[in-house]
Amino acid sequence: MLKVALSLSACLMVLSWGEVVACLALISLLFLLSKPAGLETTCFSFELDYFSWALIALTLWVTTASMLSSTKVKNSSKSSALYLLVLVSMCVSLCLTFSVSSSVVFYILFETCLIPILVIILGWGYQPERAQAGLYLLFYTMFGSLPLLIIVLHCSNLMGSSYLFSTGASMTGLLSALCLSLAFLIKFPMYGAHLWLLKAHVEAPVAGSMLLAGVLLKLGGFGLIRMFYFLDYNFLIMKELAASVSLWGGLLMSLNCLRHMDMKVLIASSSVVHMSACVIALFILSDWSVKGCLLMMLAHGVCSSGLFSLANMVYERTNSRSMVVAKGLLNITPTLALCWFLMLTANMAAPPTINLSSEIMLLISLVSWDLITIGPLILLGFFSATYSLYLFSMSQHGVFNKTKSALNNSSLLELLIVFVHWIPLNALILAVMFMF
Amino acid sequence: MSLKTNSFMFFSTLNAVLAALGLSAASWFAYKGFTLIVDWEIVSMNSIYASMTIILDWMSLSFLSAVVLITSAISAYSLYYMKEDPNKSRFIMLLMLFVASMLCLIISPNLVSLLLGWDGLGLTSYALVIYYQNESACNAGMLTVLSNRIGDVCILLAIALFSYAGSWLFFSMDAVSLPFIGFFVGLAGMTKSAQVPFSAWLPAAMAAPTPVSALVHSSTLVTAGVYLLIRFHHLLKDTLILQLLLVAALLTTVMAGWGANFEVDLKKIVALSTLSQLGLMMMTLSVGMKTIAFFHMISHAMFKSTLFMAAGVMIHMSNGTQDSRFMSSLHHSSPLLMGAFSVMNMSLLGFPFLSGFYSKDLAMELTFYALPNIWLLALVLVAAGLTVAYSLRAMLLAMTSVSNTQSTASLHDSDNVVMVSTSAVLLMGLTSGYFFYWVFLWSPHAVILPSLMKYSVLVAMLMSGVLAPLMLKPHKVLGLTLVKSLIMMSGSSKMWFLPFLSTKYTTLATMKVSAASSELLDKGWLEMYPPQKGSSVFAELSQWTKKSQATLLVSAYLMTSLMALTFILLI
C-alpha cells in the first residue's frame, strides 16, 4: 500500500497527462497482481482484504479512464495541470480511504474525498447551476457524517482502540445503527437521499461524473461493510426498513428514468436503481449477498463510468445532453452506436457480463431472504432493461437531424476508452471467484 | 465480388457444412442412443456451482442442423433481398450473432448458461427488428424486446429460486420442490413463443427485413420457448402449469388462425400462421408429448422459412408493398416461386405425405387421444379448420387470375440465388417429415380413436376448405350490416385487441405511475422538504438574528448597559 501511495504521489510531482496515465495504468496492473490472501497488513495501519483490494483496483482503473476521456479539458483549458492535480489527489485519497484500518482516520479520509469532487464540479462544471449542485453535494453528505463522527469517537472510546476489524460488536440499538449507517446510506445514495447525485452528475464535467458514479458511490457500500463490524447483528427494524425503502424506491427510480430526456440524468438515476439493490444486499449480510454486492459495485462502477464517458462523447459532438438532439446517431457514428449498445446491454445485465453474475447473486440472496421480494424484483428487472433500451433507442435510432451531418465518427482514443470499460466487464465473468 | 457479398456467401457455405455435419451426427447419436454432456464449472461458492453446460443428443443436434440449414439458405437469400442496402455487413453480422445465440440456447441444458443464448436472442432480435431507421420499426423493436424481457426476468427469478438445488443443470434433475420455478419457466416459454397474453410482439416483429422474419419465425426466436419447455418438460409433468399452458396454447391457436383469415398484410398472414402453429406445438407439449411437439417444430421450421422467402420476393415484386390485395396472378409471372409457395402452404395445412402431414396429423390425433375435455376438443377442431382456411386464402390471394397488381410491377421469376436457396429449403420441407419420422421417432405411435373422433378433423378441414374462398368477402356471406362487419373485422384483424394490452394501456399505466413518483416525490416532497425547506427555514432564522441586531432592541440594550456602566463607575 505504501508503494501505491508513494508512486501515486510521484504522479503528483510529474503533473503531465501522458506520464500520469501511463503511471496509473502500470500501478493498477501491479496492484491487480498483488491480491491479498486474507486480511493483510501492508504497512503502518493500512490493511487490505478482498473488499478493499477490489475497490482500490476499481479506483485506479476508473481514474485512468477518466483522465483519458477528459482530453478536452487538457487541450482547451488553461488550468489543465490543476485539473490533473485534483484527479490524482482524489485517486490518492480514495485509495487511502479504502485501505486504512483505523475508524477515525477512515472518517477523516472519507470526508476528504468530498473536497476534490467539489472542486471539480465548481471549477470545471458547465453551467451556473453547478453552485447549487455543489451545495447539495456538500450538505447532504455532511448531514449524515456528523452523527457518524460522534458514534465513531464513542466507539473507539468504548473499545479502547479505533481498530476497524475488531470483532467484538459493541453497539446495539436503533439510534446507533442509524448513526452508523446514515452517512453511508446518503453516500450510496439510498432512495430518498439521492437528489444530490442527480444534480452533481448533471453539472460535473466528464471526469467528475465518471469518478462520482464509478468510485465515490462505492464509499457508501464500503463504509457500511466496515461499520457493521461495530454493530451487533440486531439492527432492530433498520434492516427491513432499509430493504423495503430501497426496493420500492429503486422501482420508482427506474420508472422515473423513463421520463428523462437528459442522458446524464438518466444514467445517474440508473445508478440509484443499481445501488438500491446493493443496499438491500448489504443489510441482509449473508455471504452471497455481500459478495454479490461487491461484484455489483465493481460492475456498476465500470459500466456507469463507461456510459458517462459515452455521454460525454455525444456531448462533445452535439453540445447537448438531450436525447432528442442526439437522435439517429447510429446513422452518423455507427461505431459509437455499437459502443453504446454494448455498454447499455451490460447495464441491463445481459450475458456474459459481471453485471449479470452480480445480479444473479443478489437475486439469490434476496429471494432466499424473503420470497415476498419476488414481486418488486420482477418489476425492477423489467424496468431496468426498459430504461437502458429507451436510452439506446431514443439517442441512437431513427432519422437524424440534418444539422448534425458534419459530425465525425469516433476517434481511436474514444474507442480505447470504451474498450477499457467493456473488456473487464466481459472478461471477468470467467474469473468471478478471482474477485473474492 | 466485393467483400460484403463474399461474407454472405461465406456464411452460407459455412452453415451448409455445419448442417451436413450436424445432421449426420444427429443420425448417429439417434442410432446409438447416445447423449454427451460437457460441464465446465465457472463459479463455485458455498456448495452452489454455476457452470457452462453443453448437451449433444439427437434432439439438440437435429434442431441445430435444422437451424443452420435454414440459416445457410437465408444468408444466400439475403444476398438478393438486401442487394441495395447500405449496411450489408452490419446486417449479416447481426444475423449471424442471432443464429449463434440460438445455437447457444439449443445446446444448453443449464438455466445459467442458457441465459447466454436466451438474452442474446432477445437483444440481437431487437437490433434486427430496428434495422430500418423508422418509427414503426422502433416501436415494434421495443415491443419485441420488452416482451422477451419478461421472459428473461422470469428465467432470472427461476435461477434465483433454483439455487436451493446447488446447481442449475435441470436436465439431470428428477423434480423441483418449489412450484414457483415451474411457473416462471412456463411463463418464460410463453413470452418467447408469444402465447396468448404476450402474442402482440410476434406480428409486430414483421418490421424486420424479410430474411430476418424468415429466420425468426421458422426456427429460431419463437421456437426457443417451445424448445425450453420441451427440455424442461420432465420437471413440469402433472402440474397445474401445464394445464394453464394448454388453455393459453389453444386460445393462441384459435386467435391467430381466426386473425389470419382477416388480415391483409401478407407478412402478417404468414406471421399469424406461425403463431397458430406455435400454439399447436405448445398444446401438444402440454398434453405430454414432447417428442411430437419437437417433430412438428422441425417440420414447421422447414416450410415456414420457405413461405417467408417466397413472401419476401412477392413483396419485392410488388414494389415493396406488403398488402396482399395488390398481389395476384403471380403464378403466371413466377411459376417456380409460386410452386414452392403453394407446396409449402399445402404442407402447412397437412396435405398427405408432405412434412406437415406427418407431424401435424400425429399431433392432432394424439391430442384427441389424451384430452378428456369436450370444449377443448372443440377448440382443437376449430383451430384445425382455421389452419386450412388461412392457408387456402393466402394461396388464393396470391394466385387469382384477376390481376390486381399495380401498373408498374416488375414481375419475374427471380434470380438464381433465390431459386437455389428456396429450393434447398423446399426439398427439406418436402422430405424432412418423412426422414424425421423414420429416423428419430423410434417407437411407432398407434392411435386408437373412435371413428367419430378420427374423422372429425378431416371433416372440419374439408368444411373450412370449402368455406375459405367464401370468407374472402365475409360481410356478404354472413349477411351482416356494414357496422357489424366492421366491428367483427377490426376485432379479428387486431388479434382480439391483444396488442392494446401490451402496448397502449401498459405504457399509459407505467407513465402515470412514474409521473406521480416524479412529481410527488422527486420534485415534490424529497426536493421541497429536506433541501428547499431546510434552506428557507435557516434563511428565515438567520434573518431574525440579523433583524434583532439591526433594530432598536440591540441599540437600546447597548445604550442601557453603557449608561448602567457609567452609572456604576460614577458611584
Task: Give an account of the 3D structure.
- The complex is a heterodimer of chains A (436) and B (571).
- By secondary structure, chain A is mainly alpha-helical.
- Chain A has a domain at 281-436.
- Chain A has 21 helices and two strands.
- Chain A has helices at residues 2-14, 17-33, 50-69, 71-76, 80-99, 103-112, 114-124, 130-159, 174-187, 195-203, 206-216, 218-227, 238-257, 263-284, 287-318, 323-326, 329-332, 334-347, 354-369, 374-396, 412-427; strands at residues 40-43, 46-48.
- Chain A has a two-stranded antiparallel ribbon with strand order 1-2.
- In chain A, helix 3 runs antiparallel to helix 5, helix 10 (195-203) packs antiparallel against helix 11 (206-216) and helix 18 (334-347) runs antiparallel to helix 20 (374-396).
- By secondary structure, chain B is mostly helical.
- Chain B has two domains: 108-473, no CATH class; 524-570, no CATH class.
- In chain B, strand 1 and strand 2 (48-56) form a beta hairpin.
- In chain B, helix 2 packs antiparallel against helix 8 (210-218).
- The longest helix of chain B is centred in the C-terminal third of the chain and has 47 residues, at 504-550.
- The mean pLDDT of chain B is 86.
- At the A-B interface, helix 8, helix 13, helix 15, helix 18 and helix 19 of A face strand 1, helix 4, helix 5 and helix 22 of B.
Order of helices and strands of chain A: HHEEHHHHHHHHHHHHHHHHHHH
The best one-word shape of chain B is elongated
Structural class assignment of chain A: mainly alpha
Sequence of strands across the biggest β-sheet of chain A = 1-2
